[in-house]
Amino acid sequence: MAILRSAHRLPLAIAAVGAVALGLLTPAAATADIRYEPGAPGLGDPYFPDLGNGGYDVGHYYLKTAYDPGTDRLTGTTTITATATQNLSRFNLDLYKMNVRSVRVNGHPAPFARTGERELEITPRGGLRRQSSFTVVVRYDGVPETLGGPIIFDLPYGFLHTRDGATISSEPNGASTWFPANDNPRDKALFTIETTVPQGLKAISNGRLVEQWNSGGKDTFLWREDRPMATYLATASIGRFNVSTTTTRTGIQQLDAVDPEVASDPDSLSTPGWTTRATDELAGYFGPYPFTSTGSIIENNFVPPLNLDNAIETQTRPTYQKQPIEKGVVHEMSHQWFGNSVTPARWKDVWLNEGYALWTEKFWAEKHGGQSAQDAFGALYDSPPPIPPGRPGFWDVPTADPTRDQMFHRSVYFRGGMALQQLRHKIGDERFLRLTRTWLAENEYGNGTTEEYEALAEKISGQDLGRFFTTWIHSAGKPPAW
Question: Contact 69/164 with Cβ under 8 angstroms?
Fold first, then answer.
């Protein structure tokens, strides 16, 4: 009894362990007081509060899919390795409308339920202890749906159908159209992407092509991205492609894939060279290229009347929906640093992707004998780009919080770039480039917020920049002077 009285003075977990060692409690009884709770069904992003899920952190996705353009049907098995960040009784994944056939957690069948169009609610056999590693295997199938609406100016995105296959543009919330995920940019993970297609087609994805094989009249392509990646940056383009491989001057492996229908276009022919040059040269400005592969995908073989001309920010291998020009390649390659390596913690911070990419276009031109960035942005200050009907005016959108439906408004790009150029002008070239490199180095493979960027800018410049940032990125209205 004295031992038990002593044990009661210890923390509960220690007391339980001691009691088990003495044979006074069974292991089951020792853990009976652990409280397991459901993980949150969303991570509370201001623009997408239900996007992503709480209670765990994904370490690796293995996406094993098969897609047949003839039937428009995708079958998949996604294996997720994750770590519980709380004691979990159940947890959610995001999966848009697909048919779930089975779920296993740590090798055991797990009950699941669908709530709404995206939420897949999974209850493992027994609770998952905080800091424990676990594996989830989801088997699913269906016809992936294309998304639309006002977010990208009423353009379709997500799983996009082409005449010989499909291409995937997941930003901002389209990853769950083709695989179950913790679909929030804060939960980055490593990816292995295995895609099986009818013989004669190719599947181009992120990272390195590590293996391909033919079996039963089908071709399978295995890609591996060995640096952390946000779910919205995962992609696959399925169809007929001309593929070329090379290595940049600094030793980065490069793979470029182009739709054969536009392979002879001068801009298509130039894209691999522009990609090589941007991969190496931007590293001289921003710090080492953050990934082990680079390249491009040009795919514009869409099913009529769809005729897109966007460029898509995807990790290691941007996707162009028409043949890009040089500044378009520079813009998308800058995203390998701004957006892919350092990813917004919240979607309201997307100007740190797009403003920097637009600024990089002008800086590149300046470095190559063109107009200075100061003059280029000054001209835009005097005469901003036109805005499509029904959208707020150029100066009416606060760059650092544009609202969900305006997050890709031209002001986020162009005014964001202007703000960065004005910051460069205010604190000087040396400090601005040091700020940029420090931002990228300190947050490599992670996430950042506008507030963190502002704090770093003040630290490096030694200036109080509160009024500057309020004027340029936090307020609507045209700043008083360029």
Answer: yes
> What DSSP string runs through 111-169?
-EEEETTTEEEE--SSPBPTT-EEEEEEEEEE-PPEE-SGGGTT--EEEEEETTEEEEE
Give dist(CA 76, CA 78) in Å, integer: 6
User: For 383, which DSSP code?
Assistant: S
Closest CA to 248 of 225, 280, 224: 280
Which position has the token pair 């899920």? Answer: 53
To the nearest whole percent, how much of the chain has pLDDT over 90?
A: 90
Nearest 5°: phi and psi at 271? -60, -45
Inter-residue contact 230 to 188 (CB < 8 Å)? yes
**Model pLDDT for residues 302-347, shown as the tens digit of each residue:** 887 778 888 999 999 999 999 999 999 999 999 999 999 999 999 9
- State the DSSP H helix or E strand holding residue 237, giving kind and residue range, or none if neither: strand 236-239
What are the phi and psi torsion angles at 36 (to 5°)?
-105, 135
Amino acid at 121: E
Are the CB atoms for 127 and 89 separated by under 8 Å? yes
- How wide is the angle at C-alpha 326 spanned by C-alphas 320 and 327, nearest 5°? 90
Which tokens sit at 189? Answer: 């993970």
Nearest Cα residue to 478 out of 418, 404, 395: 395
Does residue 8 have a pLDDT over 60?
Answer: no
Closest by Cα among 33, 48, 327 to 186:
48
Give the pair of three-digit tokens for residue 266: 């001068």
Please give the backbone phi and psi of residue 120, each rounded to the nearest 5 degrees, phi first. -115, 110
- CA angle, residues 13, 14, 15, in degrees to nearest 5: 90
C-alpha torsion angle, residues 363, 367, 370, 375 (rounded to 10): 40
For residue 311, what are the β-bridge partners?
Answer: 320
CB 174 within 8 A of CB 327: no
The C-alpha atoms of residue 150 and residue 391 are separated, in whole angstroms, by 10
Question: Which residues are within 8 A (CB) of 226 and not within 5 positions of it... i.e. 6 or more apart?
Answer: 190, 207, 208, 292
Place of tokens 């400090």: 431
Query: Residue 11 has which token pair?
Result: 């923390």
Q: What is the pLDDT of residue 71?
A: 95
Q: How many degrees, rounded to 5, is the angle at CA 241 between CA 235 and CA 247?
A: 75
Residue 219 has pLDDT above 50, yes or no: yes
User: 60: part of which helix (H) or strand (E)?
Assistant: strand 56-68
Q: Nearest-5° angle of CA 248, CA 263, CA 341? A: 40
Q: Beta strand pairing status for 112-115 and 119-122?
A: antiparallel
- Give the bridge partners for 135, in sequence order: 81
Asked if residues 311 and 275 have their Cβ atoms less than 8 Å apart, the reply is no
pTM flag (> 0.85): yes
The residue behind tokens 């491989």 is: 245
pLDDT greater than 50 at residue 29: no
Q: Which residue has the tokens 């998952």?
A: 128
